[in-house]
């Protein structure tokens, strides 16, 4: 292969004919291309430069903003925790207050129920005493009425017996009996009624 043919044939031809002749003697008519694995120095330089520029930009501009954002977020999270703690404490205080109020209401309700029971018991006792008094009064009235009726009946029976006895004596002796006989009959009637 000639130098001119290598210019058309090789993907990476030698730039000078002397380099072509030297490598052709060793069996390499074409220049080897760059390694697909190893990066070139200028790529490394550009990468390092870009990294340094990015590092400087990051350190000078982005990192302070990132740090500021992180601090703001941390402060916001802390504030959220503090608000949550405050809300939790307030809720616990409200629950405690509610329980205390509920206990107070229950105590008041129990006192009112006890007072109502005592009032009802007193009213029941008073009403029972009144009813008992009314019953006793009615019983006394009924007994007095029965006693009056009995006395009236006894008086009627006594007068009837006296009349019958007087008539029988008048028929037996032929004259009207004296008042002594009537009083003796009345005494007998009274003694029998008492017995």
Word description of this protein:
Helix content is 85%, strand content 0%. The protein contains four helices and no strands. Helix 3 packs antiparallel against helix 4 (179-194). The chain is rod-shaped. The model has no long low-confidence stretch (mean pLDDT 87).
What labels would you give this structure?
single chain, 195 residues, mainly alpha, 4 helices, rod-shaped
Tally of extended strands?
A: 0
Q: Structural class, please?
A: mainly alpha
Major sheet summary line: none
Q: What is the approximate shape?
A: rod-shaped
Low-pLDDT segments, ≥5 res: none
Topology:
Elements (H helix, E strand, L loop, with lengths): L2 H7 L7 H9 L15 H133 L5 H16 L1
Helix pairs in contact: 3-4
In a few lines, what is going on in this structure?
This protein is an all-alpha fold. 85% of the residues lie in helices and 0% in strands.
């Amino acid at each position: 292969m000639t130098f001119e043919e290598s210019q058309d044939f090789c993907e990476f031809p030698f730039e000078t004919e002397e380099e072509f002749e030297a490598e052709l003697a060793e069996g390499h008519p074409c220049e080897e291309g760059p390694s697909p694995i190893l990066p070139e120095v200028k790529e490394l330089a550009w990468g390092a430069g870009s990294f340094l520029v990015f590092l400087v930009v990051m350190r000078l501009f982005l990192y302070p903003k990132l740090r500021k954002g992180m601090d703001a977020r941390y402060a916001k999270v802390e504030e959220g925790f503090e608000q949550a703690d405050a809300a939790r404490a307030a809720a616990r205080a409200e629950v405690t207050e509610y329980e205390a109020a509920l206990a107070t209401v229950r105590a008041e309700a129990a006192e009112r129920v006890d007072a109502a029971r005592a009032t009802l018991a007193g009213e029941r006792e008073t009403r029972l005493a009144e009813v008992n008094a009314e019953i006793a009064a009615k019983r006394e009235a009924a007994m007095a009425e029965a006693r009056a009726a009995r006395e009236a009946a006894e008086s009627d029976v006594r007068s009837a017996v006296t009349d019958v006895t007087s008539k029988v004596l008048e028929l037996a002796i032929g004259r009207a009996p004296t008042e002594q006989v009537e009083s003796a009959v009345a005494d007998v009637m009274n003694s029998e009624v008492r017995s």
